């Protein structure tokens, strides 16, 4: 984090299941279990993160639940970071933040939200592993969407990890015309612990596009199969008349690529079994609205 700060790079930190609730069990093969309670290791980094100019506040003094404001051309971007399996009280706090800043475009970042096995939002949030790991109680990805994301029309993007691979889901919210882009990125099962893969999002408000690419710092290479172009109105009233039409007759439809010129046949997307040397996993397919 010191290198990021020295380079003038702003950051937002999100909590994962490996960042909280470690308890010694002595039981092989891991000896420790994780996410057995809410005591968070990420709290050690609160001071560093909160001294950044875009930091605005937290739920309870820990950056596991925090929000940030980034001024960009045409609008202010609100970034809302939520804990692993967020509690009901956290969602109430998040709803207040979103309601108080409804004029700001909002991005929600949370660890576990999309599921690469079911190809949908995570439906089971409280599955406990045999050693007691992941026993903390909280909201699933499906519950997070239903109780928070779809109810706030300023939320247009959700970013998550946890489940293996890369995935995309486009869904409609409760308000007319409200659509939400949802991206999954997790490379820990890929060769050499992930080969330094990063998900890079480039926002172009003047074109109403978000270009999504994957880049490996270890291989110094891009993965062309990962590239997406998401289309979203980011200029408020100025672009309402020219907003690309989105068919909202269905909330979720499988399709192959976000590019408007892409074919609409479903296909598998990238997961660890497709990159050579990774741990096999079930295929992940993109989802969305036609």
Q: Report the span from N to C terminus.
A: 40 Å
Instruction: Please describe the biggest sheet, giving its number of strands, its sense, and whether it closes into a barrel.
Output: 7 strands, mixed
Q: Judging from the principal axes of the Cα atoms, what is the shape?
A: globular
- Spatial strand sequence of the major β-sheet: 3-4-5-6-9-11-10
Measured on Cα atoms, how large is the radius of gyration?
A: 19 Å
Structural class: mainly beta
Low-confidence stretches: 237-273, 275-290
Strand share of the residues? 25-35%
Element layout with pairings:
Layout: H1 2-6, E1 23-24, E2 32-33, H2 46-50, E3 55-58, E4 66-72, E5 75-82, H3 88-100, E6 105-112, E7 114-115, E8 120-121, H4 141-147, E9 155-161, E10 165-172, E11 179-186, H5 191-194, E12 197-204, E13 209-216, E14 221-222, E15 228-231, E16 253-254, E17 268-269, E18 284-285, E19 287-288
Parallel strand pairs: 5-6, 6-9, 9-11
Antiparallel strand pairs: 1-2, 3-4, 4-5, 7-8, 10-11, 12-13, 13-14, 13-15, 16-19, 17-18
């Amino acid at each position: 984090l010191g290198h990021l700060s020295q380079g003038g790079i702003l950051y937002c930190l999100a909590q994962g299941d490996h960042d909280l609730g470690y308890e010694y069990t002595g039981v092989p093969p891991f000896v420790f279990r994780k996410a057995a309670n809410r005591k968070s290791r990420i709290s050690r980094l609160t001071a560093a993160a909160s001294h950044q100019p875009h930091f605005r506040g937290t739920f309870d003094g820990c950056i596991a639940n925090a929000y940030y404001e980034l001024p960009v051309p045409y609008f202010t971007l609100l970034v809302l970071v939520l804990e692993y399996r967020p509690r009901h009280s956290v969602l109430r706090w998040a709803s207040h933040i979103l309601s108080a800043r409804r004029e700001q475009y909002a991005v929600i970042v949370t660890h576990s939200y999309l599921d690469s096995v079911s190809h949908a939002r995570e439906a089971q949030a409280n599955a406990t592993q045999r050693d007691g790991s992941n026993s903390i109680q909280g909201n699933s990805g499906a519950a997070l969407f239903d109780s928070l994301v779809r109810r706030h029309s300023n939320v247009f993007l959700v970013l998550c990890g946890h489940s293996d691979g890369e995935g995309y889901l486009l869904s409609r919210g409760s308000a007319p015309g409200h659509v939400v882009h949802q991206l999954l990125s997790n490379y820990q099962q890929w060769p050499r612990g992930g080969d330094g893969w990063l998900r890079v999002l480039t926002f172009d408000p003047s074109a109403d596009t978000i270009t999504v690419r994957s880049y490996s710092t270890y291989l110094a290479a891009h993965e062309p199969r990962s590239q997406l172009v998401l289309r979203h109105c980011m200029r408020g009233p100025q672009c309402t008349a020219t907003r690309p039409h989105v068919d909202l007759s269905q909330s979720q439809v499988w399709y192959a690529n976000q590019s408007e010129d892409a074919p609409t046949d479903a296909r598998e997307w990238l997961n660890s079994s497709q990159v050579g040397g990774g741990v096999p996993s079930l295929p992940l397919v993109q989802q969305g609205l036609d």
